[in-house]
User: Fold this.
Amino acid sequence: MTIRLGLQIPNFSYGTPVAELFPTVLAQAREAEAAGFDSVFLMDHFYQLPMLGSPDQPMLEAYTALGALATATEKVLLGTLVTGNTYRNPTLLAKIITTLDVVSQGRAVLGVGTGWFELEHTQLGYEFGTFTERFAKLDEALQILLPMIAGERVTFEGRYYRTEEALAVPRLRDHIPLMIGGSGEKKTFGLAARYFDHLNVIASFAELPGKVAALARRCGEVDRDPATLETSVLLTAVPDPKFTNDMVPSAMRGRMVVGSPEQIAETVKANVVDVGIDGVIVNLPAYVPGSITKVGEALRSVVGP
Assistant:
C-alpha cells in the first residue's frame, strides 16, 4: 500500500434530491481516480459531524457506499477515515473488510480507530465508555481482526470481546493494509507502531515536526523502522485564489490550505512534505466538477507518484 494523495469525502449534503446524492459521490470518486489520486475515503459516521452540520443532514453508511464505489472505480484504494471500532463487533468488521477487498479486487484499506462521537453512541445505543476503555476495546479488537483477515481461525476471550474459531471467508489477500488516524502521541502512535501500515496524523502544521519525532520514539520502543510506517496528514483544501489565509477560521488554521492549486501545493510541500510526512489526504468543503482535478494535479507534483 502506498497512500501519497488521498481524497476524503466529508459530507453528503449537496442540496440535491436523495436520488442524486450518490451520483454526486460517484462523480467525485471517478474524478479523483482520473486525476491521479491513489485513494478515496469516506467518513464512518451515522450523523453529520458538529463542525460540518446538524445531525439530521445526509450521511450514508460507509461500507455500503464503498461497496458501490468499488464496482464503479478501477484503481483507487477504498476505505474509511476511519472506522469507529465501537460501531461493529470485530468479527463483523473482519467480514465487511474482506468482502470489500473481494468486491474491489484487492483495493480495500482498513482504517480503524477508537470512536469519539458521543452523540452517535448515545442516540443509537452504542456503548461509549471512557477514553481508556475505548483504547482497550480497540486493542482487543485488533487481536481478533488481524488474524481473521490473515485467514486464521480465532478463539479469543477478553474483557470486551470473545470469539470461538471465528473465520472470515472468502479472502483475496492475507493482509489488508491497516490505517489509524489521530494525534495522541502515546496511545494512538503506540498502536500505530505496533500494528499499522499507515498513520494519518490529525494535527496542525505547527505541531507536525513534534508529531514526527514522537512517532519515531514510539517506533523505537517496539524496534520498528519508522520508514516502514507510512504517514499522511488530513487537510481541508479551498482551491479559490480569492480565499486567503487571513480568511481561514481560527479553529482550522494549520489544517486548511487555501488559494490557487499551485499555492496549495506550495503550502503542503513546505509544511507537510518537508517536515517528514509522506503524503496528504484532502477534503473539499463543496464539490465543483473539475476542482478535484486541479487540486490533485498540483499536489501530485509535491507528494510524488
